[in-house]
Amino acid sequence: MKMLNVALPKGRLGEKVYAMFEKAGFECHSIKENNRKLIFENEAVGVRYFWVKPSDVAIYVERGAADIGVAGKDILLEYEPDVYELFDLDIGKCRMAVAAKKDFRDNPNHTLRVATKFSNIAQSYYASKGRDIDIIHLNGSIEIAPILDLSDVIVDIVETGTTLKENDLEVFETIVPISARLIANKSAFKFKGDIIEKIVGSMAAQTEVSK
Ligand code: PRP
């Protein structure tokens, strides 16, 4: 039997995603063992799971190391991987937003300094508004940038808003809502289309029920 290779985002979201695959008939009980293994398979149902860093899922899928996977819309917008986006799982919901210190007032005569991990999203957002910006690319703890006057604003993910609140920042604009998406490698979608369609069908039914 052809195995279906699935890249799951490591972490809390990944556990929810695995539960949806399990309900779709692709269980792999060994994945629940408490160990540090990263690859699990169940030959009987023809599935192999990999736990990967959430921001790397799209790379595995684009290059065909995984047939399908689940990635955040933030990553898909930022890196534009050459994959099919099949389905919105309606979980892992958050938004991409512009945030700044509460007393921040934009001065259109100055270049806006934007700190972010999502440089491409920020570039195209401000390009669409015709606003001149200077991108400061950071890899984490973005919220510190405006506090230390490294930047005027940040472009980052906001989920509960707690991180912003605890650092005295607030949302100024929402750029785009984000959620987890099922993605497929383009050639795997040709050769394993039946099985992938079955998964999409089951996930669609599961998200309908939870609405
Ligand atoms: C994101 C984001 C914020 C935080 C927002 O970080 O960069 O720091 O979550 O969540 P909140 O609104 O619920 O407080 P994430 O946990 O994904 O980790 P990282 O940016 O450090 O990789």
Topology at a glance:
Layout: E1 4-9, H1 12-23, E2 39-42, E3 47-52, H2 57-62, E4 68-72, H3 73-79, E5 84-88, E6 94-101, E7 112-116, H4 119-129, E8 133-137, H5 144-147, E9 153-158, H6 162-166, E10 169-178, E11 180-184, H7 186-191, H8 193-210
Parallel strand pairs: 1-3, 1-4, 7-8, 7-9
Antiparallel strand pairs: 2-3, 4-11, 5-11, 6-9, 6-10
The structure holds 1-O-pyrophosphono-5-O-phosphono-alpha-D-ribofuranose (PRP).
CATH homologous superfamily (4th level) name of the largest domain: Periplasmic binding protein-like II
Tell me the name of the CATH class of the largest domain.
Alpha Beta
Structural category is alpha/beta
Radius of gyration in whole Å, from Cα? 19 Å
SSE pattern: EHEEHEHEEEHEHEHEEHH
Provide the list of bound ligands, each named once: 1-O-pyrophosphono-5-O-phosphono-alpha-D-ribofuranose
Overall body shape? elongated
- Percent of residues in β-strands: 25-35%
- Low-pLDDT segments, ≥5 res: none
Largest sheet: number of strands, sense, barrel closure: 6 strands, mixed
Task: Tell me what the CATH architecture of the largest domain is.
Answer: 3-Layer(aba) Sandwich
Classify the helix fraction into a percent range.
25-40%
Number of separate helices: 8
CATH fold-level topology of the largest domain: D-Maltodextrin-Binding Protein, domain 2
Tally of structural domains:
2
Largest sheet strand order? 2-3-1-4-11-5
Extended strand count:
11
| End-to-end Cα distance | 35 Å
Average pLDDT figure: 96
